[in-house]
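The instructor's notes for this session suggest beginning with a concrete chain rather than abstract definitions. Hand out the sequence below and ask the class to guess, before any prediction is shown, which regions might be ordered.
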Amino acid sequence: MTTGEKRLTAAVVIPCLNEEESIGELVAEIRAIADDAENPVEIVNILVVDNGSSDSTARVAAQAGARIVTEPTPGYGRACLSGVLASGPVDLIVLMDGDRCDRPAELPLLVAPLLAGEADLVVGSRIRGSFEPGSLMPQQIVGNRVAAFLVKRFHGVSLTDIGPFRVIRKSDLMRLGMREMTYGWSIEMIVRAARNDLTVSEVPVSYRKRSGGVSKVSGNVKASLKAGYRIIMAIFRARKDDSPLPPDLAEAIKQQGSSER
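After discussion, reveal the predicted structure:
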C-alpha cells in the first residue's frame, strides 16, 4: 500500500456460544492487529455475537473492547448473519470463531489475494498450513475432505479445508442470499460464491487448540455427525435453492441495504 492510500475498512464478526475462557484473549489479539500500522485493512468493528451463552461470554468480550450483538435464535449461521447485519458500512467482513483457534495476526495473509484482485472470497486452510495436535479431530478432517470433494465435483472449486477464518467483501456477501442458519453457513457461502461467479481461493493458516471451553462440533460424536449432516445437505440445497428468503431475513437485508446507500 502506497503512502496516503486509503485502506479498506473491515468488521470482524465472531459468533460465540459459551466462550468466556477464550474470547477476551481473542479480542485482545484482534485489537493488536487493528493497531498495527502495517495491517493492510482498517478494522473498525469487532463484533462478538452472543448466541445464547449461559456464561459470561458477553461481559468478558465487552471488557476486552468488543461490541456485543445479541442473537437469541440458536444457529451458527444465524449468529454470523446477525453480526454481518450489525457491522455497519464497511468494505470487508472477516469471520472467525470465538475459541481462539484462529490467529488474527494472519489476517494479512487472507486479505492479500482480495486486495490484489485475485480472489473475492478467501478461506484460511488449516490443512495446507498447520494445526496443533488435538486442534482438529479426525471426524473434522474427514468431514472437511468430503465437503471439499463435493464442492470440487459440483462447482469446480478446489479447496482443502472449509475453515471458519475467511474474508469477503460485504457487498458480495449481501448479494449471495444466504439461507443456511446452522453449521452449513460456511460451506453455503462457498457454494453460493461459486454460483455467483466469484473467485474462491484459500491460503495456508495455522490453527491452535482451543484455549478453553468445549467445541460445539467436535466435542462429541453425536454433535460431529449432526454438524456433518447439515454441512453436506447445505451443499446440495445451495446448488439449486432460489426460494424466497424467510421474511424476517429478507426485511433485515433490505433495511441494511437502504441504510448504507
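Then share the key points. The CA atoms of residues 248 and 254 lie 10 Å apart. Residues 8-256 form a domain with the Spore Coat Polysaccharide Biosynthesis Protein SpsA; Chain A fold (CATH 3.90.550.10).
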